[in-house]
Amino acid sequence: MPNRKPEELQQVLHYQFKNPALLRIALTHTSYANESKVPTTHNERLEFLGDSVLSIVAADYLFHQSDRPEGELTRMRASLVSEEALFQFANEIQLGEYLRLGHGEELGGGRHRPSVVSDAFEAVIAALYLDGGLETARSFILPFLTEGKTAEEDYKTRLQEVVQQDPNARLRYEVESESGPDHAKQFTVAVFCNGERLAEGTGRSKKAAEQHAARQALDRLQAKS
């Protein structure tokens, strides 16, 4: 059973659904639908739609907030709509506590699994969009889309740009260790340049650990210069 009722989430969203069933569907994982004794709709279709709504809102926001070139805007949008970012956004509203999960998924830590929670976040966006239109969805999304949440997430690209000043330089990322249960993995990744170990980083995903390693490498290179 969920820790909190789906209806309670409306207060967090600051939005009253005309069709509350949309929100219930958005919070329903496939595992719950599969175990239900009555036909139950899960959130995968809403997730598909929410991904597109999020992408257009993020693209529109970045386009009007910055005159950066297309390549940088594309990278910034990618960081905003990544699983890591969505998991962070979802945790800000404790979305995992409202999910309807099957028994096995519940026992397996589904409420804290980034893939499950971030997918539900996209589904909630779609539910808002279908119930209240694009502006309702935009009003929900925009507070999450701040420069502060994107500026620090593309250290790999910045490190690549620094090392490419030497045409022969080649970066390589290597997972050195991973620990913890499936729902709370911790990865340690090292970054090498032409075989030289520059730095290491940790994170709850390989991508996050790579970004942390790249940030550490940038700090080290800047300290040398």
TrEMBL record:
GO terms for biological process: mRNA processing; regulation of gene expression; rRNA processing; tRNA processing. Its EC number is 3.1.26.3. It catalyses: Endonucleolytic cleavage to 5'-phosphomonoester. PANTHER family: RIBONUCLEASE 3, RIBONUCLEASE III. NCBIfam families: RNaseIII. It is found in: Cytoplasm. Residues 200-225 are annotated as: Disordered. Its main location: cytoplasm. Mg(2+) binds at residues 47, 119, 122. The keyword Nuclease applies. Digests double-stranded RNA. Involved in the processing of primary rRNA transcript to yield the immediate precursors to the large and small rRNAs (23S and 16S). Processes some mRNAs, and tRNAs when they are encoded in the rRNA operon. Processes pre-crRNA and tracrRNA of type II CRISPR loci if present in the organism. Pfam families: dsrm (PF00035), Ribonucleas_3_3 (PF14622). Homodimer. The active site is at residues 51, 122. Keywords: Cytoplasm, Endonuclease, Hydrolase, Magnesium, Metal-binding, mRNA processing, Nuclease, RNA-binding, rRNA processing, rRNA-binding, tRNA processing. InterPro entries: dsRBD_dom, RNase_III, RNase_III_dom, RNase_III_sf. Belongs to the ribonuclease III family. It comes from Candidatus Gemmiger excrementavium. The gene is rnc. GO terms for cellular component: cytoplasm. Residues 6-133 form the RNase III domain. Residues 207-225 have a biased composition (Basic and acidic residues). It comes from the Bacteria. Its cofactor is Mg(2+). This is Ribonuclease 3. Residues 154-223 form the DRBM domain. GO terms for molecular function: double-stranded RNA binding; identical protein binding; metal ion binding; ribonuclease III activity; rRNA binding. The keyword NADP does not apply.
